[in-house]
Amino acid sequence: FDTLGWSNADWSKKLGVASMEILYHILETELQSKNSFILEANFRPEPDGLRMQQLSNTYGASFIEIFCHARPTILAERFNARIAQKERHPGHHAIPMDTGALNVYLKQYTPLRIGNLILLDTSNFSTVNMDSIISQIQQLDTPPFVKTHTPHPTI
Predict the structure, then answer these.
(1) Cα separation of 118 and 81, whole Å?
(2) Please, are residues 93 and 13 in contact by the beta-carbon 8 Å criterion?
(3) DSSP the chain
């Protein structure tokens, strides 16, 4: 937003699409180089699952998906708290959500299921065991691609 400006929700969506295309360009460059790396974004099964699967087939990449999720009531509280703090860039055009609206929104964010899947409940950050997650990843032994998928940027 700071580089290209911001004005309304339509422009924000266009920037989001452009940002994902840049992310995919970086992804493909790293896969061509056979590098292991972490990629984080709000991926959706449609269209990202198919696109990731095609890239996996093209480059022989293995995937580890860490799907972060939390109870909708907690996500709504976090989302609305961030809006109330007025620390988000105004280009996001965020409006408060109740749990019902958030449930509708979250239906588009489910695991891609294109490789190994680790489900991570972030409802209570103090119960997230990073050593356990690292151990699960190490046991999978599936380089060169590690992806983190979050259902909502407020997590």
Answers:
(1) 28
(2) no
(3) -TTT---SHHHHHHHHHHHHHHHHHHHHHHHHTT--EEEEE---IIIIIHHHHHHHHHHT--EEEEEEE--HHHHHHHHHHHHHHT-S-GGG------HHHHHHHHTT-----SSEEEEEE-SSGGG--HHHHHHHHHHH--TTEEEEE-SSTT-
d(CA 58, CA 49): 14
Over residues 76-107, the pLDDT tens digits come to 898 888 888 877 777 666 777 777 888 888 88
Which residues have C-beta within 8 Å of that of residue 113, sequence separation ≥ 6?
Answer: 45, 49, 65
Amino acid at 65: E
Residue 147 has a CB neighbour count (10 Å cut-off) of 22
Selection from 154, 153, 151, 155 nearest residue 45 by Cα: 151
Share the mean pLDDT of the chain. Answer: 83
As given in the structure block, the two tokens for residue 86 are 């007025």
Tell whether pTM > 0.85.
Answer: no
